[in-house]
Amino acid sequence: MSWIALETLEQKPEITGVEVERAIQDAASRIIRNLPKFTYKFQKAYSEKGFYEPTDNEDWTTGFWTGEIWLAYELTGDERLKKAGEIQMKSFLDRIDQRIGVETHDLGFLYSPSCVAGYKLTGSKVGREAAIKAATELLTRFHEKGQFIQAWGPLDAPDNYRLIIDCLLNLPLLYWATEETGDTRYRDVAEQHIHTALANVIRPDYSTWHTFFFNRETGEPDHGATCQGYRDGSAWARGQAWGIYGTAIGYKYTRRESYIPIFKGVTEYFLRHLPEDLVPFWDLEFGDGDDQPRDSSSASIAACGMLEMAKYLEPEDAAYYIGIAKKLLKSVVDHYAVKDDSQSNGLVLHSTYSNHSLYNTCNHYGVDECNIWGDYFYMEALMRLHKDWAVYW
Ligand code: GLY
């Protein structure tokens, strides 16, 4: 088992402007071809043998499909996409009104790329109403004592008094709600959560915990544990990627200088644990020579985080991270993106959702398949390289 040396990684080719255009146009065409099947339904969280089945708006992942539709609409201006996005925003409003699958912190993943995006792009009142309701619901998951938003399950569940690193991407919904309503409660909760999360999920070597428990009686930090990583103490690839993007978002909204070294450390740990082709295995413990599945979604998420953070760094640092993001994207486009409709109705192959191991607590599904956030963040990363993109998050 081995990882690429950072110096070797830095010599890898970057994606060119022409390659970005070709890839993003191709992705948008694939999204349009999917509309007949996926306008009143959503793409499922993961494909099976390369193909997504239609699903109702119930899982934590449906917002990514709507987000793909909005990205493709931004690119093409195609009215069919706008219409589909509007139909889906109505579904999101119904979902929050009927409280379907809302006992989760993933309300940001659900409502930012769907309803906040649709509102920003089209001024949709439905999108705005749905997203504000979702943000208000998300506030209810904040624990004053522990100063964090609880990830999963009922708030009084004895075994779930914890946050997870992924939640950093749920916080932009709260910032947006404060900007939109003037009510500072949303922003205050987001800031407290970011601070608690970054103070606890980052280990001394800048690898990350997937989940972190607190003491319910005192609110004090207790211990880290994995759910979807290989084992406690390893670094789940997507958790590390959420850490990269999440720290960039944390910096964007708080401008806390102490988050810059965290971003750099978490990113370097990720880069130092990549295989030769720059697309990580599902856990960073694994490298070239290990017979393990990849998680291509982590490469796209990390690239988005680097491209976001580059906006706030000194020019030399910014150029470095933009260059690295372009190297990761080049590999994803060349070796992982779907090239042929007979292969898949998704955008990117070889992602891993939830890989059960001897040492983790997750179920087993979506291994070495497309997954819907992998497709979404692939398209977002390309969009960030295509133009100076107004971020949905
Ligand atoms: N947020 C859950 C995952 O990344 O699988």
Kindly describe this structure.
The protein is 50% helix and 7% strand. It has 393 residues and is mainly α. The strands form four sheets. The protein has a three-stranded antiparallel beta sheet, with no helix packed on it. The protein has a two-stranded antiparallel sheet with strand order 1-2. Strands 3-4 form a two-stranded antiparallel sheet. Strand 6 and strand 7 form a beta hairpin. Helix 11 runs antiparallel to helix 12. The longest helix has 22 residues, at 315-336. Glycine binds at residues 166, 228, 238, 353.
Beta content = 5-15%
Distance between the termini: 36 Å
Low-confidence stretches: none
H/E element string?
A: HHEEHHHHEEEHHEEHHHHEEH
Bound compounds, please? glycine
How would you classify the helix and strand content by structural class? mainly alpha
Q: What quaternary form is this?
A: single chain
Radius of gyration: 19 Å
Morphology call: globular
Largest sheet: 3 strands, antiparallel
* DSSP helical segment count: 13
The chain-level mean pLDDT equals 98
Strand order of the largest sheet: 5-6-7
The count of strands amounts to: 9
* Fraction of residues in helix: 40-55%
List descriptors:
393 residues, three-stranded antiparallel sheet, two-stranded antiparallel sheet, 13 helices, binds glycine
Short note summarizing the structure:
The chain is 50% helix and 7% strand. A 3-stranded antiparallel sheet has the order 5-6-7, with no helix packed on it.
